[in-house]
Amino acid sequence: MKIKFIYLFISIAISFSVTAQINTIEVDSDGKSWNITTLLSGYRLEVNENGEVGVSCFGNKLNLEKSGGIIAPEIQLRGGHVAYTPMLEVIFPDGVREIELEYKTYEITEIDDYPTLKIIQKDKFYPMEVTTFIRVLSEYDMIEKWIEVFNTGKKGSIKIENMQSGSVFLPKDKYELTHYSGVWGYEFTPHKTILTQGIKTLQVKNFKSYGSSSFVVRPENEVDKYSGKVWFGSLSYSGNWRIDFDKSFDGTVQIVGGMNFWDQELNLKPQQKISSPRILFGYTENGTEGVTKSLTSFAKEKLLPASHRNKIRPVLYNSWYATTFDVNEEHQLALAKVAKEIGVEMFVIDDGWFKNRVNDKAGLGDWTVDKNKFPNGLSPMIEKINDMGLDFGIWIEPEMVNPNSDLYRVHPDWVFHFPNRIRLENRNQLLLNLAREDVYQYLYKCFHELLKENNIKFIKWDMNKALTNPGFPSAPTEEQRAVRIKYVENLYRLVETLRKEFPDVWFENCSSGGGRIDFAMMSRFDFNWVSDNTDPVDRIFIQDSYLTLFPANTMISWVTQEDWHRMNPALEFKFDVCMAGVLGVGYDITKWNEAERKIASKKISQYKTIREITMQGDVYRIVSPYDENRNVIQYVDKVKKKSVIFAYNLAEYPDNTHEVLKYSQLIKLRGLLPDKIYKIDDFKETFSGKYLMESGITLPLRGAYKSKIYSVEVVE
Ligand code: DGJ
């Protein structure tokens, strides 16, 4: 008899349709095999005759029965045949370096509202238990995996040399990988590569991603944006990470990811447990659009901090590009006055407000207000800003210290360092060793007081220096190489503690632009500063990739004077670009003339009429700037009655040139109701949803670096 116990879990899937979904983890009658299914995908685990837990390929659930059975152990180990990239490598106290696991038991439980299968295995000889967690996010067609390692012994530590979060195997085929990597100013650049026999590794070794651990793998010839098989995923971790795509000669691909154990180890003491970060794996047959829908809907509906998840994000002003470090009360108030006039709702003072912070050479670590700049402290200025009808936000960079600071003079041992080795600075700063409890307590106290004493409603949390010299010389030797793990734990703890104590405050994640954006930060921060590159043309590319992976209500974009390519784009164009996410303004707006203020007011008013759709609706990337010389993004509200189209022309080629004739100018919309009639700005006639989606329209937008935001609405 095949299926005996079915674990039912009813949830309302708001994202895809308002119907009850049934997630199942099915257990065979012998209690030794499990079918895990989402709406579309399936994954099977079995205990074989030797008591080992093995898995089938991950893919369409219809293939579960004919998947050819078990192809690999669920946890690939160092030990036995060396056939896969190992997920777990340990050294037992007697020096043995191989693991032999056998099945112990299983449990089906609920974690964060989703059914979760726990498979517990133990070493055949040594006191070590390893639990696999598989959380089934059915309506998003994703599973979330992680493992826990438990030293069940009474004496002797187990040295963990590698502990990955999870893996999946793809069926034999030829595959192309897309990943999103970059560098400062060019975050999230999509790269495509064919997977050939061997290992393709994506990794971070210095805490700076400038991209994402997210990946998309498709059979080589599947190019359709809206259909075709795709395997995808992302690691929820903000420290060093690693994802391997290990392709064997026969075409099977193992995808395995987790913390990067390069220069890292962990000694697990008796009775101690450690959990890995979580990794998402998804499968869709709706092309890249399916990937976007799964990842962005999950983040928007289930992951973002619950207190602010469904709130409309405010229009921001940020002073950085206007003033850099040269901030003072008078000028900030002047900026706030204009900000209010043009429709801003949250006024954020960036870097430069604290003691001795006249440039980037001093001040970090001493989190008290600079009395030369703000003789009365922050509160009187905040009150005046509040009186104007604006909320107030502030920039901090908790994890850093300038050598020229009181903190460093008193505690030079609080930074990462090795004796007899250089302390590498970037931007004249060093990284505090947040693995230390005293550093954690100091930072907690500083920011608890800052938030308690001032009416601050928004924190921009920056992190500018990459990790170097990760030494913690005063820690016991056996703990020294676990320092990065503890650091990230304490980082999460600090954000979570402050959020709990100050539940009204918005938190923005920044790391010299988009240097630390991932789904773990996404569960703790409301927004991301995606890039320091605010040039609107570059931004169009960065935003297109970002919106493939992350929701629009987390993407902060400011309109600034930056013009990296000397194109002198119009102010309207800049606004239109930033309006695709959470709109901000970053100019010295006190210098704006009447006409510029008018444009800004008009654009911000327009933004307020559409932001609910962009923030809460579904995003469709209709034309990517990476494919054509323009960019078209569409957002559709939940009931599909309202939509917004953002259209941006890049450089334009003359009519009828080869470059123009190469592409269809027709725009086929997505996600509408076929039988409803819609009206679109600038069009006299109306269209059925079916027509708009199947025949398409040509947008009347002409000229290089021109843009237009079209509102689409059901009229019948
Ligand atoms: C880097 C950030 O990305 C910028 O937006 C700004 O906050 C500066 N740091 C301030 O030092």
Task: Report on this structure.
This protein is 20% helix and 33% strand. The N terminus is likely disordered. Helix 3 packs parallel to helix 4, helix 6 packs parallel to helix 7 and helix 10 packs parallel to helix 11. The longest helix is centred in the C-terminal third of the chain and has 23 residues. The protein has 716 residues and is an alpha+beta fold. The chain contains 13 helices and 41 strands. The strands form seven sheets. Strands 9, 10, 11, 12, 14, 15, 17, 18, 22 and 23 form a ten-stranded antiparallel β-sheet that branches. An eight-stranded parallel beta barrel has the order 24-25-26-29-30-31-32-33, surrounded by five helices. Strands 1, 2, 3, 4, 5, 6 and 7 form a seven-stranded antiparallel β-sheet that branches. It is globular and about 80 Å long. The site of (2R,3S,4R,5S)-2-(hydroxymethyl)piperidine-3,4,5-triol has 11 residues, from loops.
